[in-house]
Amino acid sequence: MEYDKEKVDEIVLALLFLTSSSSGSETRAWKGLDWEVMNRLFEKGYISNPIGKAPTVILSEEGAQLSKELFVKNFGINE
To answer: What is the pLDDT of residues 7-18, one digit of tens each?
Structure first.
């Protein structure tokens, strides 16, 4: 099936916000999402390398901010 990989990457990055937590200057998120997408997000510089034993990835400063913005844009409720 063909699909828009950019849109999928945006939604996955937005969903990482759901499982993210910050400690000091580091933001981590669970990495249990599609490996191809996670690798593309890594290549774009938004997350640390998802390959490894750790159950989480580290979001770059840009990745953490964009993750929150995309989450609000796609799933936020206007009150």
So the answer is: 999 999 999 999
